[in-house]
Design goal:
Largest sheet of chain B: 7 strands, parallel
CATH architecture of chain A: 2-Layer Sandwich
Distance between the termini of chain A: 26 Å
Helix content of chain A: 25-40%
Number of helices of chain A: 2
Strand order of the largest sheet of chain A: 2-1-3
Number of domains of chain B: 1
Largest sheet of chain A: 3 strands, mixed
Number of domains of chain A: 1
CATH topology of chain A: hypothetical protein PF0899 fold
Number of helices of chain B: 8
CATH topology of chain B: Rossmann fold
Structural class of chain A: alpha+beta
Largest interface: A-B, 31 and 26 residues
Radius of gyration of chain A: 13 Å
Number of strands of chain B: 8
Order of helices and strands of chain A: HEHEE
Distance between the termini of chain B: 61 Å
Oligomer: heterodimer
Amino acid sequence: MHEMSVAHEICRMVAERLGRDALADVVEVGVVVGDEAGIVADNLEFCLEALLSAPPFAGARPSIERCAGPALRLSYLEVEDGSPETAGAGAAA
Amino acid sequence: MSVRTIQIHGDVMARNDAYAERIRRRLSDAGVAAFNLISSPGSGKTTLLERTLERLDREIPIAVVTGDVQTENDARRLERHTARLVQAVVTDGGCHLDARQIHDAVGALDLSEIRLLFVENVGNLVCPATWDLGEAAKIVVLSVTEGEDKPLKYPTAFRRARMAIFNKIDLLPYLEYDLDAAVGYARQVNPEIETLFVSARTGEGMDGWYDFLRARVAGREAA
């Protein structure tokens, strides 16, 4: 029932990771959803589709991987080649 | 078009959990035991807390934060039983309380005045189970007018709870509720779960609840 607020948080993390200027380069947002995360994966996907289709995102698609346990992670971003690489730490400590 | 992958592995709950840890540290430093009550609507959380305030508030100073989708009715009910402010969080459609809301509510409390804090979560056995609010433990309340298989239907809530309180046991003679089966289901999803059987309305079994709370508060003071 709180999938939209989780989707907003995921989009905030994406924006934080890439910086606003590079958002147009995101083509896929990978998310891991555990079966004990209290999240309906299909619903989260629907919310992410809605948010990622609107500015400042440019139609990136969500990709949800399900797993066992309580995990709820922004797993990876796929970006168009040529966008600035900032290797290193994840979005959250 | 070629694409490349940037690994992130960022915990989506990290911001909530950071608030929760901050709350937990503040409560621990102040010697306050905090319990997060979760249940489906109508299980009797507010009545349980009314009786608890009546019985214990002079012995153990208690603060309560209530969460409801709409109205501050629960807070108004509880205020009749304590001189302290009962804080109401109206989620305005939100299905659970999050740690930031509790962080703000706890920030408005004088923790030196209290020993026990209850968070009465939004009536919902799904979402509140997955949000850490900085509590010492989650306690799930279920009434014997619900189905015995609630623990199997909502396993996350029971798995993450320290205790299950079966309420409204005064109604058992009028129901076909199989209490042993319900307890078995709760232990099936969480073998460690503690159980209490009470009627908050009649007071039956409530001494066990008060003793549990006294022991938790004494444990904090000893620590």
